[in-house]
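> example.struct
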């Protein structure tokens, strides 16, 4: 009922978004050009589209070709402001996703700045990057980009969504027409991808790829030692996560043969408190799971001294996610490397 009451606000928000886009399209609002090519990886919905693994994969492709890559994010939820280069500091200072990206793609220069124009300039001036991957920048039209890639979940295309605040849409589906490529994420298989791609706007002429997110490894929270996947099958697992699509995380653990006996769900980008950890400890003491498993993104928010005892006293593990390409990867790679 409450969501229904918010629908008129969604219409109003959508109208403002459309007017803003028209202003950029017609040159009424100007955009700055960076000194190096910019590849934007974004979405039209808030959270949970599987964008971060896509950013990491694109950066790795570019690095493999000998390019010096900069990755620029806003740094959602951080306690700082302005330009900050991500270099192992506490997650709270830079945000969980940039902290994760810096670990998974160490050759890249990762930075955060709410002003993407300033951030792009600093990446070039201070670090000499040759190409910038703009994380979650589809709506940040003040900075021109050479390639726009939008990630959208298969579930969203099938079931639709309303504009904020009634739903999670930042922009209408028609905004995909600004992009040169769409990546449909969280596809069950190739058959679903080919069915769902027909739900894209008929006017869209760009490339379309399909992926699903898999767990590449399970690692111990303390020490980062890898747990063999076959040893995880059949084990009783207490999962906990604060991500955009927690149901997808649980389903992935189950697909690996884990027996998920409970799943504590927190809001996306949730900052864990001592009370949260106490609840997780009590639940673990009662259910006595073989493993506590969370996501790498969540672990970024647990890397502080106040949570070290919990991570050492309990068998806490984290999953490292990666992409499995179901279709369109050859064309996507060609687009990326042509920039």
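> example.seq
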């Amino acid at each position: 009922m409450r969501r229904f009451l918010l629908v008129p606000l969604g219409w109003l928000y959508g109208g403002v978004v459309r007017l803003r886009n028209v202003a950029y399209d017609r040159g009424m609002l100007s955009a700055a050009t960076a000194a190096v090519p910019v590849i934007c990886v974004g979405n039209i919905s808030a959270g949970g589209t599987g964008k971060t693994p896509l950013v990491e994969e694109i950066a790795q492709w570019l690095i493999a070709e000998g390019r010096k890559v900069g990755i620029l994010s806003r740094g959602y939820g951080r306690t700082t402001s302005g330009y900050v280069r991500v270099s192992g500091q506490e997650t709270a200072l830079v945000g969980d996703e940039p902290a994760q990206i810096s670990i998974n793609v160490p050759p890249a220069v990762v930075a955060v700045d709410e002003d993407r124009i300033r951030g792009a300039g600093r990446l070039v001036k201070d670090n000499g990057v040759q190409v910038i991957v703009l994380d979650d920048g589809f709506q940040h039209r003040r900075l021109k980009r050479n390639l726009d890639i939008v990630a959208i979940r298969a579930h969203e295309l099938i079931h639709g969504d309303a504009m904020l605040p009634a739903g999670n849409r930042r922009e209408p589906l028609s905004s995909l027409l600004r992009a040169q490529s769409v990546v449909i994420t969280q596809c069950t298989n190739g058959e679903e991808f080919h069915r769902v791609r027909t739900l894209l706007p008929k006017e869209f002429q760009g490339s379309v790829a399909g992926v699903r997110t898999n767990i590449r490894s399970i690692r111990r929270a303390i020490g980062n030692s890898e747990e063999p996947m076959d040893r995880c099958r059949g084990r009783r697992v207490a999962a906990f996560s604060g991500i955009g699509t927690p149901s997808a995380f649980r389903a992935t653990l189950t697909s690996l043969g884990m027996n998920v006996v409970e799943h504590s769900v927190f809001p996306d980008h949730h900052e864990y408190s001592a009370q949260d950890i106490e609840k997780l400890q009590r639940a673990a003491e009662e259910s006595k799971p073989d493993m506590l498993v969370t996501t790498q993104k969540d672990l970024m928010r647990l890397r502080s001294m106040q949570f070290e005892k919990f991570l050492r006293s309990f068998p806490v593990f984290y999953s490292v996610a990666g992409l499995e390409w179901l279709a369109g990867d050859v064309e996507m790679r060609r687009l990326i490397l042509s920039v």
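> remarks
Residues 118 and 218 are 37 Å apart (CA to CA).
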